[in-house]
Amino acid sequence: MTTDRLHRSAVPSGLVAPVAPDQVGIVHLGIGAFHRAHQAVFTELAARETGDLRWGILGVTQRSASVRDQLRPQGGVYSVLTAGTDGTTLDLVGSVVDVAWPAEETPRVLAALAAPTTHVVTLTVTEKGYARDADGRLDVARVSGDLAALRAEHVVDVDVDGDPGPGADTHHLLGGEPAHARPGESAVGLLVRGLAARQRASAAAGQARPVTVLTCDNMVDNGRVLQRLVSEAVDAALPGEAGDDLRAWLAAEVTFPCSMVDRIVPATTPDQRDQVARELGARDEGLVVGEPFRQWVIEDDFAGPRPAWELAGATFTTDVAPWERAKLRLLNGTHSLLAYAGRLAGHTTLAEAVTDPVLARRARAFMLDDALPTLEAPQGADLGAYATSLLERFANPATGHTTVQVSMDGTQKIPIRWGGTIADRLAAGVVPRQAAFALAAWSEVVRREAAAGREVDDPRAAELRHVVLDAGGGDAAAAGAADVARALVGLPGLLPPDVAGDAGLVAAVVAEVEALAAVPTAV
Ligand code: CS2
């Protein structure tokens, strides 16, 4: 057996779409495992169906260089291990042509975002990647570096190859660096800088350069949310007349469709990499693992050309909202419930959690009693059957999806996954019992982690720890479960104030958390 590294040039032709580095048609922000197991697979399959090879993907990795360092030496090619209850299959994907890391390659990313051959920008940057504050508005402080760079780039008119445009002030520097070289620090910031570069390039060339920005993150009305954040970024960086040209261009040439994405894609483990190395005869550092199911529902609102994703199974529709709401409230909502309650019960994986009869009952009741009455079925869908199918998908042990992974970023996910269900049920005069249990389970995980001196994996981890410390009078281990739960339900930005203040809800959460606290299993 050889463990040479997987490389495009060594892959027999026909196995992957033969895209080349100059065939970037899509820039993807946030190239983690999910993108590689989802949109990149749809893109690959569409290219194989049509032979249209314009749709190579330039992936952008925000947090660290690791995905770039895994994929670049492989020429972008990687494999997807599809793990089902009845066996696994392995497929090669060649739609990613390269990966760039903004810390070192911002000018290249901006150039790709501005290029006439790029028609679509996709994003999977997770809920926290949108840099929103507790009110859902752009947290300007978190993107201030990019906004300063945007201001400098737009005022100086740096062209996207890095040369200042005609008449530009060549001495206009930002922190000693030309503005366009200033590393992109946030997904939204980089996107806005790229869109502004595109608008300038379009104006300089005297030619329209429409582009579609397609967010694929698990958020309600994700396209509208991103569109609003982009416009808030423009207003903050280029207030008044300074941004008028950009605002007009965004309105005329850029669309922000909503989309619903679905595939369970856990973090790849070293064991899975070893297993695939034995099977492939080559080591794939970019391996991703996913369940057999995959779904993509996209609002049909494209500014220009797009891949024929429908040939790979995507659904185009005028209204994504019912799909998105059903998926977020039923799949993700139940996933999070099982993750927190599963941890409390000592389960490592979602499959273990959902086959625990007590938790399975909770999960089913959460879907049927709390979430379903708040949902309108998307056309042709049977939500009762969907709920049952979700429990089967969660029970697939082959993906090894862990409760720890799904429980990360609770403060970002809970408003989206449980908030709507809770608000709608309270408005209908009913206290959602299982959602209250879910909040209690999250609260208990937060309390027990703090009591053990650990931080939860959440961008607001420090704040969460303080809530527990305060409840314990400075000693996390002394904090009472009910006090912590009361404080966490009221955490700003978690639930709308009237919902968080609902006496019936708070009483239900407190009753559940007291029952959970009485059983001191490990988190
Ligand atoms: C999960 C999702 O990690 C999580 O929070 O709930 O990533 C889930 O697996 C996907 O949304 C499924 O489409």
CATH architecture of the largest domain: 3-Layer(aba) Sandwich
Helix content: 40-55%
Distinct small-molecule ligands in the complex:
D-mannonic acid
Uncertain segments of ≥5 residues (pLDDT<50)?
162-173
Total count of domains: 2
Report the portion of residues in β strands. 5-15%
What Rg is obtained from the alpha carbons, in whole angstroms?
24 Å
| Envelope shape | globular
Instruction: Describe the main β-sheet briefly.
Output: 6 strands, parallel
Question: How does this structure look, described?
Answer:
Helices cover 46% and strands 12% of the residues. By secondary structure, it is of the alpha/beta class. Helix 5 runs parallel beside helix 6. About 2% of the residues have low confidence. The strands form 5 sheets. Strands 6-3-2-7-10-11 form a 6-stranded parallel sheet. The two termini are 41 Å apart. A hairpin with a 2-residue loop joins strand 8 and strand 9. The chain contains 20 helices and 16 strands. It has 2 domains: 294 residues, Rossmann fold, CATH 3.40.50; 197 residues, N-(1-d-carboxylethyl)-l-norvaline Dehydrogenase, domain 2, CATH 1.10.1040. D-mannonic acid binds next to helix 10 and helix 14.
Layout of secondary structure:
Blueprint: E1 4-5, E2 24-29, H1 33-37, H2 39-50, E3 56-60, H3 66-71, E4 78-84, E5 87-93, E6 96-100, H4 102-114, E7 120-123, H5 144-156, E8 173-174, E9 177-178, H6 187-205, E10 211-215, H7 222-237, H8 244-253, E11 254-255, E12 259-262, H9 270-280, E13 282-283, E14 288-290, E15 295-299, E16 315-317, H10 321-344, H11 350-354, H12 357-371, H13 383-394, H14 403-407, H15 410-427, H16 433-451, H17 461-471, H18 481-489, H19 497-500, H20 503-517
Parallel strand pairs: 1-13, 2-3, 2-7, 3-6, 4-14, 7-10, 10-11, 15-16
Antiparallel strand pairs: 4-5, 8-9, 12-15
Helix pairs in contact: 4-6, 5-6, 5-7, 6-7, 6-8, 10-12, 10-13, 10-15, 10-16, 12-13, 15-16, 16-17, 16-18, 16-20, 17-18, 18-20
The structure holds D-mannonic acid (CS2).
